Amino acid sequence: MTEHALFILASESPRRPELLRRMRLTFDVRPARCDERLHQGETPEAYTRRMALEKAEAVGAGAPDTWVLAADTVVFSDGRILGKPGDRDEARLMLSALSGRVHEVVTSFCWYHGGRNIRYVRSIESRVEFKDLTEDEIERYVGSGEPMDKAGAYAVQGLGSFMVRAVHGSYTRPKLCKPG
């Protein structure tokens, strides 16, 4: 770990380190390698909580005396969890399904310290309303490449913000889900 780093961020996302750097925090980044398949009957909250914990534990195994922060996000619409699209066609389908509708975004995070046997996992939830998207808008956005590593095939903090009509609860301070 770097000399003055406070913790390790277990993430491959370019957005999470950017947010933490804006807060002037010092940390190291180590991507977590986990099986991200959804378990049968898993809710969005249960899935993201499990993934955040598994990512934190995977990275924390190599640094047992260091705090680790991990997170996972999914989009939930029509009873389906939308993770990262597998290809451009899947990204187009996801964006078409979200067009003109309201969906849920669930993010869970985990603070983990292996040496102290601490696992603190919480979830946050927001409702996002999309404007009606044209086929051309979807095609141009998919062509930008941004949707390919984003849950639900978009980033509200990036180019995808043009699609968002409203966020019910701020995307930087969403309401807390019930703990547990």
Task: Provide a brief overview of the structure.
The protein is 25% helix and 29% strand. It is of the alpha+beta class and 180 residues long.
Describe this structure in words.
The protein has 180 residues and is α+β, with helices and mostly antiparallel strands. It is built from four helices and eight strands. The chain has helices at residues 15-22, 44-60, 88-98, 135-143; strands spanning 7-10, 27-29, 68-77, 80-82, 102-113, 118-130, 164-168, 175-176. Strands 1, 2, 3, 4, 5, 6, 7 and 8 form an eight-stranded mixed β-sheet that branches. β3 and β4 form a beta hairpin. The chain starts with 6 loop residues before the first strand and ends with a strand. The model is unreliable at 173-180 (pLDDT under 50).
Label this structure with key terms.
180 residues, alpha+beta, eight-stranded mixed beta sheet, 25% helix
Note the gap between the termini.
Answer: 31 Å
Sketch the major β-sheet. Answer: 8 strands, mixed
Helix amount: 25-40%
Residue windows where pLDDT falls under 50 for at least 5 positions: 173-180
Number of strands: 8
- SSE topology string: EHEHEEHEEHEE
Rg, Cα atoms, Å:
17 Å
Mean pLDDT: 90
Shape: globular
Structural class: alpha+beta
The number of helices is 4
Q: Give the DSSP E fraction (strand runs of 2 or more residues).
A: 25-35%
